[in-house]
Amino acid sequence: MCGAHVIDGLQYANWSEKVFREMRKGSVDAVHVTIAYHEMFRETVANIEAWNRMFETYSDLILHARTGEDVRTAKNTGRTAIVFGAQTPAPIEDDIGLVEILHSLGLRFMQLSYNNQSLLATGCYEAEDPGLTRMGREVVSEMNRVGIVVDMSHSAERSTLDAIEASSRPIAITHANPARWHPARRNKSDTVLKALAETGGMLGFSLYPHHLSGGSDCGLKEFCGMIAETADLMGVDRLGIGSDLCQDQPDSVVEWMRVGRWTKQIDYGEGSAAAPGFPPQPKFFRDNRDFPGLAAGLRAAGFSEDEAAGILGENWLRFFDKSFGPAR
């Protein structure tokens, strides 16, 4: 597996030289990073500006990836490729023309909704889910055209199934787990997972404790056993890791993620009724340095070396190759 690519399908760390060096210690070749939660277009551009400064400052550790080939370049030069994604459609505001502009700026994933109803689709915390809106279907078509992946990680069930059906290109659920393993609102039903696999989409398994059976006490054996069961449902080639790692973020960031600007109240989300905060990571995956342990766990769960390599990154890389450019 030494020549295989290791790719994380979603992180929102408090980015720093420390985190970048830990990525290199874990041999992580690419990470899909969140550049927007609730930010509108101009705020998202400011976040891209900040990333451009980091690419310049830490050019020996990271590079901006727009294609699968950029990921290969990162690995060959001992760096980690950074792929931009938005966990919200807020950056396009109410203007479909901004989809192409954001692609030109490097955006490669965009969720059609976060936890709430958006102009495009319904989030998983809404009581009713009417599915994709008229604008949602048009935006999916435009994302297909330019090469931004439709991500439905936080979306409700009907909206997710609508997106799978409406999209002419495979979509992704970058960070979630099967609901039958752990019934968090963000985890996905077998109906969704089957539809995702049948259309060539990708599932990234989340290591965020609220998405794990047993929470922070979940063990490597249990996590990898869940992946093995999901492989029986979806096929090994449709699976990856999307850790949802929020390393070194202050607890105040959880409030921003859940509350944004839509309420003055605290949205407690999937945690307890206490003030929102980040739960401890499971012991087997504290940060990027623990990716080698995932490889060992997958092998112990019965995956071959090639299958484990696929789950840890090669499946994502093939998906990037097919998804990040204009539709052919």
Structure notes:
The protein has 328 residues and is of the alpha/beta class. The chain has a single domain, classed as TIM Barrel. Helix content is 39%, strand content 12%. The chain has eleven helices and nine strands. The strands form two sheets. Strands 1, 2, 3, 4, 5 and 6 form a six-stranded parallel β-sheet that branches. A three-stranded parallel β-sheet has the order 7-8-9. Helix 4 links the parallel strand 4 and strand 5.
How would you concisely characterize the structure shown here?
This protein has helices spanning 17-25, 41-57, 68-76, 97-104, 134-146, 157-166, 190-198, 220-234, 252-259, 291-300, 305-323, and strands at 7-11, 30-36, 62-64, 80-86, 107-111, 149-151, 172-173, 202-205, 239-241. The chain is of the alpha/beta class and 328 residues long. It has a single domain (7-323), classed as TIM Barrel (Alpha-Beta Barrel).
**Count of distinct strands:** 9
The low-confidence runs, each spanning 5 or more residues with pLDDT under 50, are none
**CATH fold description:** TIM Barrel
Average pLDDT over all residues? 95
Task: Write down the domain tally.
Answer: 1
> Secondary-structure element order, as H and E?
EHEHEHEHEHEHEHEHEHHH
Shape: globular
> Termini distance?
32 Å
Strand percentage: 5-15%
CATH architecture: Alpha-Beta Barrel
> What is the helix tally?
11
Instruction: Say which CATH homologous superfamily is assigned.
Output: Metal-dependent hydrolases
Secondary structure: helix percent: 25-40%
The class by helix and strand makeup works out as: alpha/beta
Largest sheet: 6 strands, parallel
Radius of gyration: 18 Å
Please give the CATH class: Alpha Beta
